[in-house]
Amino acid sequence: MIRVLLPAHLRTLARLDHEAVLHLDGALTQGAVLDALETCYPALRGTIRDQTTKQRRPFVRFFACERDLSHEEPDTPLPEAVATGIEPFLIVGAMAGG
């Protein structure tokens, strides 16, 4: 079981009140989580990553276990605490400006 926390606007789009709970088989990677999230919540397709290149959208960041995973390869295994559901996988909208 993987817990995914989304920003409020994406929760609204996916019609979620709280976190998304995903049950994955196979390798527990960032890419697998995003694939499962977009399969379970089709309204999120294209909002978190580009559908053609599968690259993370600008101003979207990924965190887990107090680590920024935004620049990790999509096939890098997730931390054990995320894979077991103890810690959530966070998708966060980044802020810019000065």
How is this structure best described in words?
This protein is of the alpha+beta class and 98 residues long. The chain has one domain (2-93): Roll (Ubiquitin-like (UB roll)). The chain is built from three helices and five strands, in the order E-H-E-H-E-E-H-E. Strands 2-1-5-3-4 form a five-stranded mixed sheet, with helices on one face. A hairpin with a 2-residue loop joins strand 3 and strand 4 (67-68). The longest helix is centred in the middle third of the chain and has 11 residues, at 30-40. The radius of gyration is 13 Å and the shape is globular. It starts with a strand and ends in a 5-residue tail after the last strand.
